[in-house]
What we know:
The protein has helices at 3-18, 45-51, 66-81, 96-109, 119-127, 141-147, 185-195, 224-233, 235-240; strands at 28-29, 34-37, 111-116, 169-170, 173-174, 178-181. With 245 residues, it is α/β, with parallel strands linked by helices. The chain is elongated. The N and C termini lie far apart (66 Å).
Amino acid sequence: MGFFKKFRQRKRRIKNFLSRKNLINESVNFSKKSIFVAIPKTGTTSVRRQLREFGSPIIRQPHLSIAQIKKIFYVYVLKNNLSKNRQFPSKSILEEKEVSELADKLFYSFFKFAGVRNPFSRVVSLYNRREGNQHKNKMNFKQFCYKINYSSDTCLHPTLHKNQLDWLMIGNKMVMDYIYKIENFSSAINQIYERTEGRLKIKNIYSNVNPKSFSNNYHDYYDVETKNLIYKKFQKDFEHFEYSY
């Protein structure tokens, strides 16, 4: 078989694959070519609701790291490639190498972004949360600071990411296109709009706000001991994102 004939067949297989409507995860929007890494307690609810595509995703849990999302791209391509064969001899499916290449090509073509939060404020929000594993009535704040070890310790579906930064790396490599601080969300949505040439027009809508989280007044929770403790536990975030008390 000639090179150009093989090339045309390969393009046809990929085109047929991309025409199928499927969902990877709530974090991924195919029509807008975007990936939003939803780190818990960083104001993700309103953004997720605005970007969510409806359907049956491979994994429903929204708080996945970028490394986990990248792996699901491979599963997504593989799952579609293993659809029912209607030709003999088989011509409609991708070869294994093509599956891997297409998964990587799709992943890196998407705009990948996330928000982060001052760890001091975030820990207070985790302590006062209304959903997930609630601990406010079980222990005082100092006890909570000693016990917390991971960024999602109090979530219903925890993952062992120590810092927020760990959600945004693949190995030692930063692959995100844009990371904003939720403290600057109003200006961040303008940046996102410009960087995506108008594809992502996110509104500044407050959702799932806990009026009793008191995270805006987090200074009232800390003494010297707990402040040093939280800084030491999440030092990587403080240093990388240049947060201070």
